[in-house]
Design a protein that fits this description.
InterPro entries: Gfo/Idh/MocA-like_OxRdtase_N (IPR000683), GFO_IDH_MocA-like_dom (IPR055170), NAD(P)-bd_dom_sf (IPR036291). This protein is α/β, with parallel strands linked by helices. The protein folds into 2 domains: 10-140, 3-Layer(aba) Sandwich (Rossmann fold), CATH 3.40.50; 144-304, Dihydrodipicolinate Reductase, domain 2, CATH 3.30.360.10. The chain contains 9 helices and 14 strands. The strands form 2 sheets. The chain has an 8-stranded mixed β-sheet, covered by helices on one side. The chain has a 6-stranded parallel β-sheet with strand order 3-2-1-4-5-6, with helices on both faces. α2 links the parallel β2 (43-49) and β3. α5 runs antiparallel to α9 (324-344) and α7 packs across α9. The protein is globular, with a radius of gyration of 20 Å.
Length: 345
């Protein structure tokens, strides 16, 4: 295997070798995925970049990353980096996603892709046009739809046990404490706000389940003033109406207790899961089936590591040249989030 700094071409990396990632950013989410990369044979973190060289060095030591640098540009220029993981605030995803694509690197981008649908489309276009039109892969960071749980849900949704899907209901919330004025999720200028953050998962799940786009949307946002005096949405309650009078509803919040549940309700039965984006116990992955009368059955899945499953599929998509269906779903999600914010007024 070639080491960091050796000349190489991502297209020449053998299928038995891991995809070599450069990580941009050293925050909490970057650390979680870097730790997962160490557990995933299909990928390897080979470089980390930060605007603070000391932070990058500490991150590299903690996660056994060979190269650290106080420059994002250095990571993009490294010929041993096949792909870039964008673990930066959403307002700079377009800038650094474009730069990564221009450098010939595949892009794994944390959700949301960008602050709005227009920027998300521009990012997808830049990735498709890279390498003289050959393109580089763009993978959005929504993990749960790339796990065995999503396969089990899809199989159930296509079965007679659920019947025709009529309703998706979701909730995602936690009580945020200890956030200072550096927290980008409370800064609307950096892509903050609960709708883009937690709302992404709920909208993404509804579009994934219905495989359709809503004809109408409604949204109520609750705001608080951050330390800089800017209003930022900290709670949202939304409804989506799909063709055929099918509906979805969700609420998200930074001010209520932890909730992470979803229900897919059909004419014959429903699926209920109270930890849908990430199993609380990966050794006991479960959800519930309710029949037409409401009688419940616990469904258990074999244990799996969600992040390893996600990274393995991301690596396969990078080798295949991209994830067209995933990009389309991410762009549709971003568009609906724009519509919801507009509907909120």
């Amino acid at each position: 295997m070639k080491t960091v700094g050796e000349d190489s071409d991502p297209d020449d990396v053998q299928a038995t070798e891991p995809i070599r990632f450069g990580v941009l950013g050293t925050g909490r989410i970057a650390g979680k995925l870097a730790a997962a990369m160490a557990r995933t044979p299909a990928v390897r973190a080979v470089a980390v970049g930060s605007r603070d060289a000391n932070r990058a060095s500490s991150f590299a030591s903690l996660h056994d990353v060979p190269l650290s640098t106080g420059s994002y540009e250095d990571v993009l220029a490294d010929p041993a980096v096949d792909a870039v993981y964008l673990a930066l605030p959403p307002h700079v995803h377009l800038e650094w996603g474009r730069a990564a694509a221009a450098a010939g690197k595949a892009v794994l981008c944390e959700k949301p892709l960008t602050q709005n649908a227009a920027d998300a489309a521009a990012l997808a276009k830049a990735c498709a046009a890279a390498k003289n039109g050959a393109g580089v892969a763009l993978i959005d960071g929504t993990q749960w739809t790339r796990t065995p749980r999503a396969i089990a849900f899809r199989d159930a949704l296509n079965s007679e046990a659920i019947g025709s899907l009529r309703r998706v209901t979701a909730a995602f919330s936690f009580h945020a404490e200890g956030w200072g004025d550096t927290e980008h999720r409370l800064d609307p200028h950096r892509g903050g706000g609960v709708l883009l953050d937690l709302g992404w998962y709920c909208v993404h799940a509804a579009l994934w389940a219905f495989d359709d786009d809503p004809v109408r949307v409604a949204c109520h946002l609750a705001h608080e003033t951050n330390d800089s005096g800017d209003p930022v949405d900290v709670a949202a309650s939304c409804t989506l109406t799909f063709p055929g009078d099918r509906t979805a509803g969700f609420d998200v919040s930074y001010g209520t207790a932890w909730r992470n549940w979803i229900e897919f309700a059909g004419e014959a039965g429903s699926l209920v899961c109270d930890d849908f984006t990430n199993p609380r116990d990966p050794e006991k992955v479960r959800h519930f089936y309710h029949d037409q009368r409401g009688d419940a059955e616990r469904i258990e899945l074999p244990p799996f590591d969600p992040q390893v499953e996600f990274l393995t599929k991301a690596a396969a998509a990078i080798r295949a040249g991209g994830d067209e269906d995933g990009v389309k779903l991410a762009l549709r999600t971003q568009t609906v989030l724009d519509r919801l914010r507009e509907a909120a007024g």
